[in-house]
Specification:
The structure holds two protein chains of two kinds. By secondary structure, chain A is mostly helical. In chain A, 94% of the residues lie in helices and 0% in strands. Chain A has one domain (14-158). Chain A has helices at 5-137, 143-158. Chain B has two domains: 54-74 and 84-133 and 256-378; 139-250, no CATH class. The chains are: A mainly alpha, B alpha+beta.
């Protein structure tokens, strides 16, 4: 059959050396490389997952902020509108007050003007009456009867 | 060449192959490629002057090829591979790592991979080298005297006869020149030799096609040892002029067609299996699988386990050897029957068998290893 000890030992040693060399130069480096690559891929995938999660979070945050901002803006607009309304209201009131004051003033002025006019008219009218009466009676009446006459005429007139 | 030509073309080649081989030799016009069938020998032949067998030489050449590939593939590895060799190496290693992890169910399977991978690669490369052209067909021509003494040495009746005592010790070295000795062993004298043509001045012989299994005096290529040694001048002298009769001793022969190689790998594998078992379970627990004195039945079961373990070495050895040796014989026979073309499918078959046998050897090692590290007492 051909089995002999020297041949067997030769092949045993050859094969053992081959196993050693293959382990050292094929198995170990390749497995190391494969493991490193698997690790890298795993890390890359988890990184990508974190990144996408972060992006999602950021997007939702932005959405939230945006809606808040919108709400705030609405509030601001509302407030501004209210304020302007208020302002208009106030202005209107103010103007009304001013107008009424002016009207009051004008009324007063008109009244005082009228009083003055009346007074002046009274005075002028008295002179006129005296002149007219002097002309009528054609005689100078004295000072005393003069003022008596005026007063009497005025009283009659006023009545 | 279009499709309608290919089929007839190969058909013609195939018919030529059949006609040129030994089958065609039966017809007067055929047999133009034929040659005497090669001598088939079970043990590996020792190459004269080197002291080791041709199967050892082939194993070393296969290992050198394998290591050259491995160095080239892993010399400059990158995480993003840019060489195909690295891809191939990665695919092979990853395949076995995944397989070991799948079968053993986890990271613990990794300890088996270096050996399993080595067995696969060593066996597959040496099997494939055995199919290469030139392996088994290029060699040294042994002379008729050497062939005679080898055969005489094997046969007890010749060995112990009148001159057996003075040949037992000095076998091998001086038979070619020992003209004083008598050639009396009948079986050895009937050994077949093949007639080679010599190229003058170079010392190289070759086997010309066209000579069949017939004797040389009938136009064939075969001559008996006795015709060369005893009746050299008388019968064949004219026919052997410028030729040499002898037997081819191939320089290279498939490494796994030698039982020493397969037995060596099987021993390494089974020793490793025992080592894995002991290192995983401890000497006491692992030994308890084989030597269990708790009950007579368990003792018997343990003994069976022990025998099974030894039988695994034998089955490893003979499975691989049987397949590869049979493959070699098949190729020799097919080369004889269907030279050149007809042999091609059988070479393909041998390449396939080479992978399958390597895979079986390595996977069985893996499975035995996993069985060894699993704790039976827990079930």
């Amino acid at each position: 059959m051909g089995i002999n000890l020297p041949g067997l030992i030769t092949q045993l040693i050859s094969f053992a050396i081959l196993v050693f060399l293959l382990t050292r130069f094929l198995y170990k480096p390749v497995v190391k490389l494969l493991d490193e690559r698997a690790e890298k891929i795993k890390k890359g995938l988890s990184d990508a997952e974190t990144a996408s999660k972060g992006a999602e979070e950021a997007a939702s945050k932005i959405e939230e902020e945006l809606s808040q901002a919108r709400l705030e803006g609405k509030k601001l607009v509302e407030a501004a509108r209210e304020a302007s309304n208020q302002l208009r209201e106030d202005e209107k009131e103010k103007i009304a007050v001013e107008i009424s004051q002016m009207m009051e003033k004008a009324k007063k002025e008109i009244n005082s003007e009228r009083d003055n006019a009346i007074l002046e008219l009274k005075n002028r009218f008295g002179e006129l009456v005296v002149d007219a009466a002097g002309k009528v009676i054609e005689k100078e009446i004295d000072e005393k009867s003069h003022s008596e006459l005026i007063t009497k005429a005025l009283e009659e007139k006023a009545l | 060449m279009n499709k309608s030509i290919i089929l007839p073309f190969f058909l013609i080649l195939f018919i030529t192959s059949i006609l040129g081989g030994a089958i065609g030799g039966a017809f007067p016009f055929g047999g133009f490629f034929q040659s005497p069938i090669a001598h088939i020998q079970l043990p590996g032949e020792i190459i004269p002057g080197l002291g080791f067998t041709n199967t050892s030489l082939t194993l070393w050449i296969s290992m050198a090829l394998l290591l050259a590939f491995v160095f080239a593939a892993t010399r400059n590895m990158k995480s993003i591979p840019n060489s195909r060799l690295q891809n191939i190496a990665e695919v092979i290693v990853e395949f076995f790592v995944n397989l070991a992890q799948t079968i053993s169910g986890g990271e613990k399977g990794r300890r088996f991979v270096p050996l399993v991978l080595s067995i696969f690669l060593c066996v597959v490369v040496s099997n494939w080298v055995g199919v290469l052209p030139g392996v088994g067909t290029i060699g040294i021509v042994e002379s008729a005297e050497v062939v005679y003494s080898h055969k005489e040495h094997k046969i007890d009746s010749c060995h112990s006869s009148d001159h057996g005592s003075d040949h037992g010790s000095d076998h091998g070295s001086d038979h070619g020149s020992d003209h004083s000795k008598e050639y009396t062993c009948k079986e050895a004298l009937k050994e077949h030799l093949v007639v080679f043509n010599k190229i003058p001045g170079l010392g190289i012989s070759y086997l010309p096609p066209g000579r069949g299994e017939d004797k040389i005096k009938n136009g064939g290529g075969v001559v008996l040892v006795e015709d060369v040694i005893n009746n050299h001048s008388k019968v064949e002298s004219g026919k052997l002029e410028g030729k040499s009769a002898g037997r081819l001793l191939p320089i290279l022969r498939g490494a796994n067609t030698d039982l020493n190689t397969t037995l060596a790998i099987a021993i390494v594998a089974m020793v490793a299996v025992q080592f894995w078992g002991i290192s995983a379970l401890g000497v006491k627990k692992y030994g308890g699988k084989f030597f269990n004195f708790s009950s007579p039945i368990m003792l018997f079961v343990g003994l069976l386990e022990l025998i099974a373990e030894l039988a695994r070495v034998v089955s490893f050895t003979f499975r691989l050897f049987g397949n590869m040796f049979a493959g070699e014989v098949l190729l020799v026979a097919m080369m004889f029957l269907l030279p050149f073309i007809g042999i091609i499918p059988f070479m393909g078959l041998e390449l396939f068998v080479g992978v399958i046998q390597a895979f079986i050897f390595s996977i069985l090692t893996l499975i035995f290893g996993i069985t060894a590290i699993s704790d039976h007492s827990e079930h």
